[in-house]
Known about the structure:
single chain; 34% helix
Amino acid sequence: MMDDSPLRLRFRPLTRDDFPTLTGWLAQPHVARWWNHEYSPEAVERDFGPAVDGTDPTHMQLVLLEARPIGFIQCSRFSDYPSYRREIERIVEVPEGAATVDYFIGELDFVGRGVGKAMIAAFADLVWERDPDLSCLIVAVNSANEASWRALLGAGFVRVGRGDLEPDNPIDDSLHEILRLDRPR
């Protein structure tokens, strides 16, 4: 059980040594529901290996609570993914220097306890520190994934739009919440 003390979250770059953990998390029902990602070792290598190698510009991080791996978070600049940028721009403006984040808590015993909100807020602080050219973070979340968009709101994001996007999981409706966090002044 967690107490009210601040969480000691850390982030470190994802490595291939983390792929078995990542594979297990992607197979967990609470992650698979929203990520709908293949979780075979070959699929994890195919989709996460290029970022680990530095040939894909997405910054992938393992989330640690104390020394225990509990989740995954990644950050991508919209300028590196122009087709995704165009899709989001049908709903909201995407300024220069904007990026997006994707995340999940892999360990079920940390779901629904405020860890997601703390993880997102701490990661945003890290992103601002490491990338002075970043203007804002814009995240699209399926409207049915209320826990995810509420975690973003709790981390300081503001809802800036709502619209139809291709869902990650074909069982979902296309309606998405679009949330934004601007760089602190």
